[in-house]
Amino acid sequence: MKYETQNVVANPLQGSSGQSTKGGDPGLQLIVRGPTQEGANVSTAELVTKRRDLYHGSYRAAIKYSKEPGTCGAMFWYKNETQEIDVELLSYEDKSSSSTSPVHFVLHSEGPSDHETPQLPFHPSEGFHEYRFDWSPGKVAYYVDGKHIKDLTKGVPEVPGSLILNHWSSGNSWTRGPPTSDVTMTVAYVKAYFNSGSKSFKAHEECSSGCLVPDQYGPVLPNQETIFLTKPAAQRRPIADKAVNRHMAIVVLIL
Asked: Is the pTM of this model over 0.90?
């Protein structure tokens, strides 16, 4: 398997026509190339944030996955092989004969992985859906299209890292690939509302409260939004502590 930049292709909307410039679904295309000669690397696609200080927060992406069997599409937070928060879909599991399709929620840690596979009431290859995880101390809450699906609590990371989206394949039992033709996963947007884990992050050092996060799981304020990772004012922790600077940052990528 080999990640290559030419497999990340912009396909934006063309004016107000509602049509994409290259045809097909508008967005950022992550392409797995096929077929692959025996013994050769599969040509795949990956996006990684430049920032490595992404910490507790809410991470969301609208994605349309592929149906051609043999690939894995993923959105995940990553520090290393034992500190990882995953949302993964396997194209071979998207079966037309079924009215549901599984999604894989995984926490990788030094011990056994916490891994749940709830069934989605749709086919991920038939349209865009928002996949989301909210990471807080001791818990990762997973959502699909704004609906709370599952909480994982074993091996929750406690260090900052990066956000990654990729579309890949190999000859292993996980992807059951490589595919027999080029396969595309399309990303409409990525949104990240997060606390910086960098001790040197200064952009919001004058801020005395958190940023409002839409539809945040937690105590609801009168305006139906909540402040991420904050408590009522009397119980609220300082924004910065000895471990990290808990300044809220927002990154939104509209494609």
From this structure: no
